[in-house]
Write a structure and sequence with these properties.
- Helix content is 52%, strand content 5%.
- By secondary structure, the chain is mainly alpha-helical.
- It has two domains: 1-48 and 100-122, no CATH class; 54-94, no CATH class.
- A two-stranded antiparallel ribbon has the order 1-2.
- α2 packs antiparallel against α5 (104-117).
Length: 122
């Protein structure tokens, strides 16, 4: 399913966006889509972001570790163990977030650009 984003601009801003798009040989919607994808990269290059992972974004190794962590956390005496003792038993933190350094935004940028390139020109 395809979702739509609607942006509202004054007539003069829209006119000028159309002028920029025409000068670049693009349709205004395509220009805005490319600007969105590029803007993601530049806006978040110095601003941290943490995005909650979807179930499908955990590797099999992460899923196995989460299961192991749950078993360990439910074992007798677990709450009394320090960090190093927990690590020695095989516990390891699995981060539930994607961050800038995970290249989530770079992949999103590529997918947004690709969505424009794969559309038929009318």
């Amino acid at each position: 399913m395809t979702k739509q984003i609607t942006l509202n601009f004054s007539d003069d801003i829209y006119r000028d966006l159309v002028r920029v798009a025409k000068a670049d040989g693009r349709r205004v919607n395509d220009l805005v889509t490319v600007l969105l994808s590029e803007g993601l990269k530049f806006f978040y290059c110095e601003t941290s972001i943490a995005i909650k992972k979807l179930d499908s974004e955990y590797s099999q190794e992460d899923k196995d570790q989460i299961k192991k962590n749950e078993e360990l956390e439910n074992s007798e005496g677990w709450s009394g163990l320090g960090y190093e003792a927990r690590r020695a038993k095989g516990w390891s933190h699995v981060c539930p977030y994607l961050r800038n350094e995970d290249d989530f935004l770079g992949n999103l940028e590529d997918r947004v650009k690709e969505s424009v390139c794969n559309q038929e020109v009318v």
